[in-house]
Amino acid sequence: MSDLIPHADLATHLRTLTPARVALGRTGVSLQTRDLLDFQRAHAQARDAVHARLEAATLAVHLAQITGLSVFRLHSAAPNRTTYLQRPDLGRKLNETSQAQLANHLNFANPAGPFDLVLIVADGLSALSIERHVSPLLIELLPALASWKLTPICIVEQGRVAIGDEIGSALAAQISLVLIGERPGLSSPDSLGAYITWDPRPGRTDAERNCISNIRAEGLSYTQAAAQLGSYLTEARRRQLTGVALKEEAHLLKEG
Predict the structure, then answer these.
(1) d(CA 180, CA 91)
(2) Mean pLDDT of 205-215
(3) Between the CA atoms of 84, 85, 88 and 89, what dihedral angle is there, to the nearest 10 degrees?
(4) Domains along the chain with CATH numbers
(5) Residues 137-191: tens digit of each pLDDT
(6) Cα–Cα distance between 97 and 104 in angstroms, integer?
(7) 3-state secondary structure of 46
(8) How far is CA 233 from CA 64, 128, 133, 250, in A?
């Protein structure tokens, strides 16, 4: 009983465990001014994150430097941010110029056999998360992929998760890893998500992917995320599957 937290201190204790808004104060029937202003600030940050533009050229140079890989700059069929937000379907496929760019690469590269992995970086709903978290995450992850045959990194503007299916198929990659800005929340405008798909091709569903989310300083650390991604990628290649099936197999193996 001595470990119980006094009721008066419970709200303070909970606030040390989560950035969520816990036990907000009241002034009459309204929120206190400081809490209202904090909410408005968080909402503005989330809105700004959704509408922010990815500095793709700068990111391409930086990723080439830290990875030693070539980098392609691609664009979805959504020509601008407004269309992207209104037409999710257009964010799931490449425009004609990007399709031709990938086709030309295969024609000239003439790879010996399929690639193991394609790394795709898409702005998604938070370009801020890409600018903050992709580089340190890749620095942690790439040593685990030293023996993997990688395609050039693909940076996609106005992209959604499923665009990795078309890119992976076009580059003949066995697995696609899409790093994408997640939908901002009121306490996390810069959360990064990672989606792994075996045998990427148009028509894949979310049930055929594995996802690791909330990669950021206040969430899942780069080291933890890289370890989880490395484990998923290794198992995906070994078992030649991802998604619900991979999770079910892992669960059955643990029970056995």
Answers:
(1) 12
(2) 95
(3) -40
(4) 51-255 (3.40.50.11240)
(5) 999 999 999 999 999 999 999 999 999 999 999 999 999 999 999 998 877 889 9
(6) 11
(7) helix
(8) 22, 26, 19, 13
